[in-house]
Design a protein that fits this description.
The chain is an alpha+beta fold. The chain folds into 5 domains: 12-122, PAS domain (Beta-Lactamase, 2-Layer Sandwich); 147-274, Beta-Lactamase; 278-375, PAS domain (Beta-Lactamase, 2-Layer Sandwich), CATH 3.30.450.20; 381-465; 468-602, Heat Shock Protein 90, CATH 3.30.565.10. It is 42% helix and 26% strand. The chain is built from 17 helices and 20 strands. It has helices spanning 12-19, 39-45, 49-52, 66-74, 124-146, 165-171, 190-206, 255-274, 294-300, 304-307, 321-332, 377-432, 437-465, 468-473, 475-488, 507-527, 565-576, and strands at residues 24-28, 34-37, 82-90, 96-107, 113-122, 150-154, 160-163, 209-217, 223-234, 241-250, 278-283, 289-292, 338-345, 351-363, 366-375, 493-499, 532-540, 543-550, 580-585, 591-598. The strands form 4 sheets. A 5-stranded antiparallel beta sheet has the order 2-1-5-4-3, with helices on both faces. It has a 5-stranded antiparallel beta sheet with strand order 7-6-10-9-8, with helices on both faces. Helix 12 (377-432) packs across helix 17 and helix 16 packs antiparallel against helix 17 (565-576). It is extended. The two termini are 38 Å apart.
Length: 608
């Protein structure tokens, strides 16, 4: 890019970043000679850095792609300084894998390319999935065209998006174009159209599948009985319907003989093939799987062939396998029909939670258990998040009650006592004023002293709740005052570093920052046993970073007791303001609390 400086690769900081990247990073000359590769690059190609640096980049590229790669690199210029390409690379083992590269040219003052920087990642799996998807689409279209029934795909409003050749033939149309874009309701007789539209709306709302019978009408006006099986197509199991697939069958010649059986077979097949729930049929005697649907394969991350080699213990975490085997037997014996909130083990080792419904069936003459898996992981996560929110709110409410209780104690034991004493002294002075003026003056002076102490105590309490300096001078001055108060309380030495450009912030943000700093300093002073504490308040563009660091005893952040409201209060204040909080601490290594808050969303509107 114009005016761009060549990166200083000798700096340890930037080199460490590059070396720790998972992506493959390389630098090479315009004639493809490698001059730098990171550790990930070396590991990927199974070679030492010394073997790679000085060699040609093209020696690693599959011979079939070398010419294309060379052409793309030679196309780099000032007007197109970045090119992206996909190529096959050859590993020392002889394995061919796909890589995606982003190549960026670095120019000298004469607009000549002096080197090229590349960042790459392995996309072999993506390529495999793309090939599989293309094959699946081709297979799907072939199946549709070979299907003896008419197949129509429409949107949720009933407009036809696709019609198979059989659909064109069945309707007496001349081409798919005569059907696509038109209302699918016109394919049935007028007296059935209202019911058909209601059924379509219900289908999309429930996101289920249904089979209905209508009297269809051809382009020439002739009628025939048909059976239409419809299913909702969703990109996401919980998303909105993107299309509706309808299979139309002419049942006019054999409707009476095969009506009940055909309806059930089509419905069950549609459910099995298209349901978002996982379906698993297991041999009761051997506990081995004998049939699975595509949804369960997607849930578990296995192919159908892989899953058919597994048994019940293979898809549950080891610690719950004995319990799940007992539950399986109970379902096989009809003692239970549903097991809720069960952990299920995926191929990659991850776990999701499912409600599993089981019923005994006969499959190919063998007693089997048919189980439906409904993934409830998101629901479980939402419930857990709600519980955390409730605990946090309860903690904050308790902390607020505790703080108000302390203020009440302070008022009762301090301010109220001073005022009561002052009142007694002033009453005594009034009583002695006529007959014992000297004693009256002494009592009067004592009362004034008590009032002064009460005034001081009132200001101290006000400062504890919300220091006046926060409203008068802003957050920086308030934090400086807070640091001064902590030091005068014979706590650790506190260093304050402030680097901000703003003058004032909205009151809610200033109060939150002050409370966070107050709580963090209090924790460091009371619990860290550190002789020194550092507080930094730094503005970084549109963010404010507040750090409190000590070099004391430290602690394990994962083992903080639930009744420690201070950290939870800081975390909640930070979350509500759209910020981030991070704690870095270990026993014996001190503690660093970092809070980053956005400033743009909280800036007050300027008067025009």
């Amino acid at each position: 890019m114009p005016g761009e400086e060549h990166p200083n690769w000798s700096e340890p900081y930037y080199r460490a970043i590059v070396e720790n990247q998972r992506e493959l990073i390389a630098r090479f000359t315009p004639d493809t000679v490698l001059i730098y590769v990171n550790d990930a690059y070396c590991r990927y190609f199974g070679k030492a850095r010394e073997e790679l640096v000085g060699s040609s980049l093209l020696s690693l590229v599959s011979e079939a792609d070398r010419s294309q790669t060379r052409d793309r690199l030679q196309s780099l210029c000032r007007s197109a300084p970045v090119v992206e390409n996909e190529e096959r690379v050859m590993l020392p083992t002889g394995e061919i894998r796909w890589q995606q590269w982003i190549n960026r040219a670095v120019f000298d003052a004469g607009d000549r390319v002096v080197e090229i920087q590349s960042v790459g990642r392995d996309i072999t799996e993506r390529k495999r999935l793309e090939d599989a998807l293309r094959q699946s689409e081709a297979t799907f279209r072939t199946l549709l065209e070979a299907c003896p029934d008419a197949v129509v795909m429409m949107d949720s409003e009933g407009r036809i998006l696709f019609a198979s050749s059989r659909a064109v033939e069945l309707q007496g149309a001349r081409s798919p174009e005569e059907l696509c874009g038109h209302d699918a309701m016109r394919l049935v007789v007028e007296e059935d159209r209202r019911r058909a539209r209601e059924n379509l709306a219900d289908l999309c709302a429930r996101k289920n599948r249904r089979t209905d019978e209508y009297i269809a009408v051809r382009a020439d006006g002739t009628r025939f009985a048909c059976e239409i099986t419809s299913a909702v197509v969703c990109d996401d199991p919980n998303g909105e319907p993107t299309a509706v697939m309808a299979v139309i069958r002419d049942v006019s010649r054999r409707k009476e003989a095969q009506k009940a059986l055909q309806h059930r077979l089509e419905e069950l097949q549609t459910i099995y093939d298209g349901t978002i729930e996982g379906i698993l049929i297991t041999d009761i005697a051997t506990k081995r799987f004998v049939r699975v649907n595509a949804s369960l394969c997607r849930m578990l991350g296995y192919s159908e062939d892989e899953l058919l080699q597994k048994s019940v213990p293979d898809i549950h975490p080891p610690e719950v396998v004995p319990d799940d085997l007992q539950r399986f037997q109970a379902a096989a014996e009809g003692r239970v029909t549903i097991n809720e909130n069960r952990p299920v083990l995926c191929k990659d080792g991850s776990i999701f939670y499912a409600d599993i419904t089981g019923n005994r069936i006969l499959h190919e003459g063998r007693p089997c258990l048919l189980a439906l898996f409904r993934d409830i992981t998101e629901r479980k996560q939402a419930e857990e998040a709600l519980q955390r929110e409730r605990r946090t709110l309860e903690h904050m409410l308790r902390a607020g009650d505790h703080e108000r209780q302390l203020i009440a104690y302070d008022i009762h034991d301090g301010l109220a006592q001073h005022l009561a004493a002052a009142m007694m002294q002033l009453q005594t002075a009034e009583h002695l004023r006529q007959h014992r003026p000297d004693q009256a003056k002494t009592a009067y002076d004592a009362g004034l002293q008590m009032l002064r102490q009460a005034h001081f105590e009132a200001r101290r309490l006000i400062s504890g709740v919300r220091p006046p300096i926060l409203d008068e001078s802003g957050i920086v001055a308030a934090i400086a005052h807070l640091v001064h108060e902590q030091q005068t309380a014979h706590g650790p030495s506190i260093e304050l570093h402030s680097q901000v450009s703003f003058e004032r912030l909205p009151p809610v943000l200033e109060n939150a920052i002050y409370r966070i700093a107050q709580e963090a300093l209090a924790n460091a002073s009371k619990h860290s046993r550190s002789e020194k504490v550092r507080l930094a308040l730094v503005q970084e563009q549109d963010e404010l970073r507040l750090e409190v660091q000590d070099w004391g005893v430290g602690f394990d952040p994962a083992c903080v007791a639930e009744n420690r409201f201070g950290l939870e209060g800081i975390r909640e204040r930070t979350r509500l303001l759209g910020g981030k909080m991070k704690i870095r601490s270990r026993p014996g290594e001190g503690t660093l609390l970092r809070v980053v808050l956005p400033l743009i969303a909280h800036q007050p509107a300027c008067d025009e």
